[in-house]
Amino acid sequence: MKQLSSSQIRQMYLDFFKSKGHTIEPSASLIPVDDPTLLWINSGVATMKKYFNGSVVPSNPRLTSSQKSIRTNDIENVGRTARHHTLFEMLGNFSVGDYFKKEAITWAWELLTSKDWFDWDPDLLYMTVYPQDDDAKKFWQEAGVQPDHIIEAEDNFWDIGEGPSGPDSEIFYDRGESFNNLAEDDPENYPGGENERYLEVWNIVFSQFNHEPDGSYKPLPRKNIDTGMGLERVVSVFQNAKTNFETDLFLPMIHATEDFSDGKTYNSDPKLDISFKVIADHSRAITFAIGDGALPSNDGRGYVIRRLIRRAVVNGRKLGINGAFLYKLVPVVGQVMQSYYPEVLEQADYIAKVVKSEEDRFNETLTDGLALLNDLVAKTKESGAKEIDGAEAFKLYDTYGFPVELTREYTLDEGITVDEDGFKAEMKKQQDRARNARSKDESMGVQTDLLIGVKSPSEYVGYTQLDVKDAKVTDMVADGALVDGAEAGTVQVIFDKTPFYAEMGGQIADQGDILAADGSVVATVADVQHAPNGQNLHTLKLQQPMHVGDSFELKVDAAFHSKVEKNHTATHLLDQALRNVFGGHTQQAGSLVEPNYLRFDFTHFGQVTEADLAKVEAIVNEKIFEEIPVTTVETDQATGKKMGAIALFSDKYGDKVRVVSIGDFSIEFCGGTHVKNTNELGLFKIVSETGIGAGTRRIEAVTAGDAYKYLKAHDDLLTTTAAALKTPQVEEVPAKVAQLQEQIKTLTNEKAGVEAKLAGQQADKIFDNVQEINGKQLITGVVQVSSMDQLRQLADTWRQKNLSDVLVLGAQVGEKANLIVAASDGAMKAGIKAGDLIKAISPKINGGGGGRPNLAQAGGKNPAGLNDAMSEAAKWLSNLA
After folding, report:
1. 149 is in an annotated binding site
2. 185: Cβ contacts below 8 Å, ≥ 6 apart
3. Domain ranges across the chain
4. Where do the Alanyl-transfer RNA synthetases family profile domain residues begin and end (predicted)?
5. DSSP characters for 408-468?
6. CA distances from 618 to 601, 666, 690, 769 (A)
7. 568 annotated ligand-binding residue
8. CA of 255: how far to CAs of 267, 273, 342, 556, in Å?
9. 674 a known binding residue?
10. Topology of 561-712 in CATH?
11. I need a surface site. Which of 19, 126, 536, 571 has the fewest CB within 10 A?
12. CATH architecture for residues 6-242
């Protein structure tokens, strides 16, 4: 067996398929782009959907990639099995309507067995095939596989719903008898069975059918190849590792964790080994996820990251690591993956900062969770029960990040078990909620070839002209079919040349008209998108007949276009200004460029202050006032990167790219339209800034005339305010407002003083009315106060004077009712808890509440029930055993 590192294996795979005419696709961001059906990129083919469903035609139908992916559907198995991971790399080769079974099988065998490549022993390889797939069996034998190494399996048919599907062939590597965990006669002891000896390393899917919406299967217009080889598994074979974790992909993180622990070592205790593996795995997943722009939160992708961090921290506690440590593994992950993912080390400081912040927060939460667990154990013992309630165990898991295994281990020493069935029931409820919240449309989409074969050349000339004469109709679609012409209605049309910009990169499409030779309007342009082969596809609303071969004048709405390109140039200025203010980790997360405003989403960990926004806005306006020329150069990607151009990680760029430069301030890859000079923007004004998700912020802004209108409206509002305040100059408004605020503060304090005096007078009467109930002294009363704060002040006075065992006060504040309950130290020792009492009496005011054993409060919507609440308090105390 060759001695190869993970980096060498990855590169060898890609180099092999490059030698077979494949284009190497870079590993895409883990955050899906324009695909709401996926939470994460979870496979290599997930990034190829647009090619397989026919919405985009790739420049080369042969593609290969090593795609980082995340799956968390069986997170509980991570660390417990040899090959479960949250983040993994999927090596793949893809054919989009080009080669098929014979080439895919022949090349797979060559890569695996050739001395120039993997050089694996052919006798150790086995293939499973779909029983009805005679071609696959034939091609494997022709490649050199012995018939007894080809196994038929009914489940070798890849189908995830509507869209491409077909038989597949799995490749297994025989790791030898030393890995055998089953008896010789066990029915699972074969390649493809549930065993440790035969390791699945590759799956080749032969997509040849369309799974139709009605459930039928029809031959695909274009047959495809989709393969997946798990890098981690292949590395374990090359490095003769017992599991994936004993490879150079994971051992550096494991050894670093050993250094953080209190003397714990890997391979010394099977239980501790699980914790080492969990930490190594999760450190990779969170590092890459945060690096790609996701941040910890309570929902979606952010919740996955939060859960992974918490799980790793809890396992760190098992290894004796009590402080933050996970963030220290970020640069270790970066070093391991540096050869193919250099951006991880480049962002290591930022990623580590995010991880440490989350670790610190959870370590505080973890302490609270342990306190709750101790309380649960104490209550369970007091009640004489031997089992922790399943719902409470789930609360520990869901709120505090305690896996049920940890709760079980913790309570075992106390002779108490956990209601596992109750826990599972609560877990299922959560899973059902999550499943219902996900999109039902998880399939790839039915493949269509309507426009795949339409390759008529179409030139976009809108960068330099907005009015084109003699533009010829080359292709037309109406009612879902290619047609030669249409009399009316909505059609889609390709012209041999066009000035209409097709929506792309957040910039909306141009609007305008299609004119006949006599100047009459033949159609209005409702939308422009890109056809699968890249032509601008115009959606037209016909007012006159149109046919293929006809020529027309195409005229863009110049005013609409001008406003859009002003806002587009402003997004470039804004993007760079944000980087200047917040740092290089800030990335564009989306944009929308309309004629009347722009919207810009960006990643940022933390809040954005008014001072920050003022700096950003000032920078943009400074560049506008400097009257900087905006220039565009068409070049290749490599040259563009050398120029310093910023590329969006989620965008794909062709061989030729446009580099838009605003002096030396901003340089970006961009196919959109722009002004010639920043002075055309006139003015830039941010109108709003909000958070739209975990670590993602949104700015909306206006330029030019819309910025003037915005400022004019605010100026009018200020003038109106000055008039209302009777100040002759608007400059005096802040001083006048401050003066009024001081007056209000003075009056409020005076009012509070009077109310406190009145409350004190009421308290003297109420505190004198002490009831003796069940051996305890109780004071109750409904008082007239203006806030819950004053009720708390009365409770403080009561406690200082030690007037009774229990105090219950109520008050109507506005339309609502408030209650407060206080218990003395003696009452608490006797088992009387303010929180229990407040829960008993708050229903009388149609409310609820809670608090500590010595003080609790409640609010409700029924002030008329306050006296009933007082009576209920006396009744509760009298019934107390």
Report:
1. no
2. none
3. 6-242, 275-437, 459-556, 561-712, 762-879
4. 4-713
5. HHHHHTTT-EE-HHHHHHHHHHHHHHHHHHS-S--S------TTTT-----EE-TTT-SEE
6. 19, 16, 19, 66
7. yes
8. 11, 12, 22, 63
9. yes
10. Threonyl-tRNA Synthetase; Chain A, domain 2 (3.30.980)
11. 19
12. 2-Layer Sandwich (3.30)
pLDDT (tens digit per residue) in 206-230: 999 888 888 888 888 889 999 999 9
More confident residue, 402 or 52: 52
529 membership: H or E segment, kind and range: strand 521-530
Alpha helices in 325-418 (DSSP H): 330-336, 342-346, 348-383, 390-400, 404-412
pLDDT tens for each residue of 117-156: 999 999 999 999 999 999 999 999 999 999 999 999 999 9
**Fold (CATH) for 762-879:** Diaminopimelate Epimerase; Chain A, domain 1 (3.10.310)
For residues 569-575, average pLDDT: 96
Of 715, 711, 655, nearest to 682 by C-alpha is 711
Q: How buried is 803 (Cβ within 10 angstroms: 0-12 exposed, 13-18 middle, 19+ buried)?
A: middle
Residue 834 backbone zone (phi > 0: left; psi -120 to 50: alpha; other: beta): alpha
CATH of 459-556, one of 1.25.40.10, 2.40.30.130, 1.10.150.130, 3.60.15.10: 2.40.30.130
Q: Model confidence over 610-656: pLDDT tens digits?
A: 999 999 999 999 999 999 999 999 988 888 888 888 776 445 566 78
Residue 604 tokens, joined: 């940022």
**Residue 561 one-letter amino acid:** H
Which residues are 523's β-sheet partners? Answer: 514, 542
Choose among 377, 370, 457: nearest CA to 415.
377
Q: Which two tokens stand for residue 311?
A: 């799980």
Highest average pLDDT, of 24-38, 484-498, 737-751, comes from 484-498
Q: What is the pLDDT of residue 247?
A: 97
Task: Tell me the C-alpha distance between 830 and 702, whole Å.
Answer: 66
Reduced to 3 states, what is the DSSP secondary structure of residue 485?
A: strand
165: phi > 0 → left, psi -120 to 50 → alpha, else beta; which? beta
pLDDT for 299-326, tens place per residue? 788 888 988 998 899 889 889 998 999 9
